[in-house]
Amino acid sequence: MHIEYGFLRHRLALAGVLAVFTGCGDDGGTVSGTAVIPDTDSSTGPTGTTAEPTSGTTTGGTTDAPTTTSDDTTTGTSTTGPIEPPAYDQWITVPLEGAVCGNNSQYKIFVNWHEGAKDLIVMLEPGGACWDFDTCSGKADLGAAHPDGIPDNLLYDPLTKNLSPLMRRDVEGLTKDWNMVFIPYCTGDVHTGNNVITYQDPDGVSPDLEFHHNGHNNVMAATDWMANQFPGTDRLFVAGCSAGGAGSLINYHFFRSKIDAQRGYLMNDSGPIFPSGGWSGPLHDKIRSSWDVDSVFSALPPGFEIEDDFGVLNTHLASLYPEDRLSTVFFQRDFNYSRYSYERFYPNMTKEKIHEYWAEDTDLMTALYDPHPNMAYYLPYWRGLNDSHCVSIISYLDTEIEEEGVDLGDFIGTLLDDDKPLVSYRESVQPDEDN
Asked: Transmembrane residues, as ranges (predicted)?
């Protein structure tokens, strides 16, 4: 059984996918927050510049390949205050001192300033996960993204730059005019690990693999940089799908507590953290040992510890930030993240058995969410794209719940509208879909 995971490690055929979603609207406009993708720019050439992150000066613009910042300015913190953006509405590569990928190469983030913007969206990249020799070496079917590190031109890759309507300025979306930060993923730990570990080949053939599960430390370096760069932010929207979705939830407190923002919003797309008492328990036990997530959870405020049940993180955040608006979205027939959750932990797993476990874990999660007015979920049934994995990628086409007359764009519109109460949606079983 093979999977094209997370459109990163095993790439989707982007041209064909984008063609499906091209010209789906009447004029490329929006209705109730719905983003419609127009004819897509498929060029791979860069159009931006690079930053000098802490110098307070700008670099000359270029239309050649993007370059990294100089060594003396690669830092996650600064006491000099925000820099003058080297360019607006272009992606800038920003290396972060001390931040590394799984192979110990330099880690970097990508920043896109919009002149006059006071709102900030932080998007965490998807891309699988790994926790043993087979998955971290790329030997297993289910693995993780960017095993060779982050390229400087990642945001000029056609798939990445068109990944989400929320990160594009060429479509009429709710975040089109926000400042944007893209948090790449190269540590195999859903942006959450804090462990350098050596994995041994169980077959005794390949050499030992030293792997840096450094996701949380990378997030902290990025957060320190953003805290310096974006003081006085109005709205902070943390989002991501798959590994990025799980990372957005697990790291939300750290983003929220460090970045100076008046209001906070979360959308965990297709990276749910289910209660450990359900079928996800063995996965939670495994990543606890491989990624040392206990050291990350120990940094949560007193009274909000994570002990035996990872799922309580959802309600802890609701209590820590009662004025923030928090959400999880995913397809009920997701056949991607669900495989990571169960396939390597239970014998003789079939597609229907995986979906059965996923539905039962979903019941546990919705029971956590329902009592909290500042938490909501959006759970459509099925979409053919990407094995029903990641609701917010490429376009919101086919994300509608027809019986309620809403799609994901409507849900996001409500999420970001403080004057509207949050509403949760779970589509009924659609027997004619996913046959």
From this structure: none
